[in-house]
Amino acid sequence: MIVADFREGTKVICDRAFSWCTSLASINIPDSVTSINIPESVIKMEGNPFAGWKGSLSIESKSFIYDNNVLFNADKTIIIAYRADDELYNIPDSVTSIGDWAFNRCKSLTCINIPDSVTSIGSSAFDGCESLTCINIPDSVTSIGSSAFYGCKSLTCIYISDSVTSIEDSAFSISVFRDSETTMNNKN
Predict the structure, then answer these.
(1) Which domains does the chain have, with CATH numbers?
(2) pTM for the whole thing?
């Protein structure tokens, strides 16, 4: 089995449903599932597997830290999934990378504070953050992934320094600059 794909309407997937499925590469879980437990055996998650899903999440794996509805890797250097409904979020100083899709569809997020410890912003990291109004990308950031701010239609100011050496395709696509006077300032 390579992919497990559940139909909408599925509410429960029992413990050990995938025990010994050594070839399993992907699991597609519908929104109708109301809670997910990540067992100790899971050692890798990426690309925010919980984007847009509002159910209850519990983590038993030592490979991750789940703190105030935010999923990090074990040493809190990578944000994997932001699941809170806050308008403001201060990324912890331990974080060096904002993972792919980490803040995907966080529609209530208006302001994000990125510390100087962050060096990269992943692909689609803030995709669909419709209420995000301003972003200050610190000097420590050197790369911004593709579609990182795709669909951030309330974004009116972006501060980017000379330290950013790579901005991938469509990083600021869809309505970012269309409806307002947006300034892209170089801090240096």
Answers:
(1) 65-188 (3.80.10.10)
(2) 0.85
